[in-house]
Structure formats: C-alpha cells, structure tokens
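User: My collaborator sent over this chain with a note saying "see what the structure looks like." That's all I know about it. Can you take a look?
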Amino acid sequence: MESWRRGGADAKQLSQHRWKGARSIGLAHQLNEQFIELFCELSIDARSGNPFPLVALHRELWSHLDPTSCKRLALFPFVIVDLRFGDVAWWRMAAGNGARAPGSHAGVSPTTRWDWLALETLMFAWQVAREDRGVASMLFAMPPPVADCIAVLTMQQVRTLAVASAKCLRIRWDNDPRFWRELLIAAREPNEAALEKLRREAKLHFCGELIHTQSAGSAPEPLVAGNRMDTTPED
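Assistant: Without extra context I'll predict from the sequence alone. Here is the result:
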C-alpha cells in the first residue's frame, strides 16, 4: 500500500512538471494540417501553374487525401513548416531590417494564401519564442540565436516580416520524395504501423536538423532552387 502511494505521488509530481511545450503540440498539428491542405489544393488546381516539385511528383497522392487523412498526416510533435528557422544570419539581418523599418510599412497586410500561412507560422513561432526559447527550438528546429531574434520583434514587425518572407515558406524534407510518397500512402490507406515507423524516421530527420542548427559556428544551408516557395511559373 505504501509503495502504491509513493507511486501515485511520483506520478502526480511528474504530471506537474511535464514538458512546457506540451500545450503547443495541438497548435503545431493545426498549422501542419493547414499546410497539408494547401498542398492538396495545389495538386488539383490547374491554374496553380508550376507547383512545388513535391506536389507535381506526387500529384495523384496529394489530390486523393481526404480530411481525415490530412489530419492523420499532420500529427507530428513539431511544426513541419519551415521559414528559414535554421538560418541564423538571415534572421539577424531580417530582424535588424525589421527593427529599422519605416512607419510606412505599418499598412502591410497579407494578400495571398502564402502570406496568411507565413503570418500564422511566424506568429506562432513568435509566441512560443517569447514564452520559452527551449520549446521554440524543439517545435521549430531553430537555434537559440534565431529564437532570440524572433522573440524581440514587435507584432507589427512580425506581420511585416511574414509578408516579406512568405516566398521562403517550405515543407520539411521536400528534397526526399521517397519519404513523402510512403508517408502519403500510409496516411491515405490508413496504415498505422507504417505511419508510426515513418514518424520515427521524421523525428530522426528533425533531430538532425536541430543538432545541425545548434552547432556553434555552423553556416546556414544554401537555398535549393525549386524547393521553396520562391519558385514561380516564370522560373
């Protein structure tokens, strides 16, 4: 009986000290789902011109995802949307320019779906970074210097930077079509065992990104043409 009581007390203590970012996981799922839904829309919209290579390559799989499959696909314990969160130099420059932005930029507003999604992504990152830099790192794979840059922005600067950088928005692992093909198939079938295996693989990839960005003095990765939202039909 005494052992049972100690066990209950230990469990209560653990629940009181659970990870600070636990309550943000649901918001990460929502953001992931929005981006996945956007890719589904691009896959069936003939007017979208030249969509992301990842969409064009797996157009059939994206176009046949139903809402339940999209939700299933979004269930990662981190954000699968990236806004150059691992690029320290870029964020230092962007934050510096944003801090010096003239008042005339106060009227900048999102006008496209990309703008709104970039704003939601950066607003979420800003809120988390202001609350806890460590949680921001674990949700966005951003190193502490990037979290510092984002945390000190004003709301207007967040809005301005989001619109200005919307074309940098990307989905993680977009250079690994094999992984996304298997993920899309597992989410559509559904195949929970395969999904769990792929989520573990995704976590390893994410941890690798996090370790890379945390490395002192590591240079930012160069942009790969066609892998981000700066790809346009004219490119």
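A starting point for your reply to your collaborator: The longest strand covers residues 81-82.
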